[in-house]
Amino acid sequence: MAGKGKKGGVTIVIRKEEGGEHGHHGGAWKVAYADFVTAMMAFFLLMWLLNATSEEQRRGLADFFSPNNVLARANSGSGQPFGGRTPHAEGASVSDSGAVRVERGQAPFLLDIEEDGDTPAAPPSPALPPQPDQTEVPHAAQPDTAAIPDAALREELARRERVALERAAEDIRAAVRDDPALAELARQLVVEQVPEGLRIQILDAERRPMFAAGSAAPNERARALLQQVIRVAARLPNGLAIAGHTDATPFRGGERGNWELSAERANAVRRLMVEGGIAEARLQSVTGHAERDLLLPAEPTNPANRRVGITLLRQLPESAAR
């Protein structure tokens, strides 16, 4: 604001400042304060790390920030940063802890038949020459299976297979017996061990057929029984053979006869087993026997002769083990 006036012919101008700015104090103190806070945070972080880590972990952290590891020529890989446990260890900065140490010792004598743990291995043949010092045999050396007589080994494998097949037979019987919907069909299921393996047969009964007359399609009863057989067979590695049978009553179906009917029923069972999860490669044979292999030879027209047999084949025939 200015006022104007005249005095003695001279113009006098008076200016009045109504307000003024404060002087600039500078911002250097803010930078210094931020540096101080950062330093204190780093200090407390360091204190926390020293308290929360072990000596071994602190060595690993030192290795991580050590420039020596960058130019190390040797490989690392102990799981710690850049391998080395400490930059002051001798040699290249690689791990000097946790290395695998191989020592020689007595080699174990193991065979597949020892897996169960309940049957000891057969003793070595007395005709074998004395064994060398076992402490000189590398741990990775494979045992000499010739140390067990061939006949004893085959007999033991055959015995174990018989046990496995018998367990499978009991599982099938129990599944049918304990299922109220299948219990009445238990008499139409025959499960037994034969020289070829475990044979499961599904039979017709009076007024209870498994297939409609002249049909190759199994009915619901047959499918329910087959599902139990498939469930157990899927757990075993054995090959499978499927056979269809008829009774001695001639089947007149145009160009089809008992041969065709029995083979078609066996093939229908094969399809159901594959659909149920049985690998196709396990199927060894699918055959039709017509009336040539009667279950009850003295009663050739008995409905029980109309049946389908599924055999879990032995991997080692019983005759070969003797």
UniProtKB/TrEMBL annotation:
Residues 121-132 have a biased composition (Pro residues). Residues 76-98, 114-141 are annotated as: Disordered. Residues 198-316 form the OmpA-like domain. It is found in: Cell membrane. Keywords: Cell membrane, Membrane, Transmembrane, Transmembrane helix. Belongs to the MotB family. This is OmpA family protein.
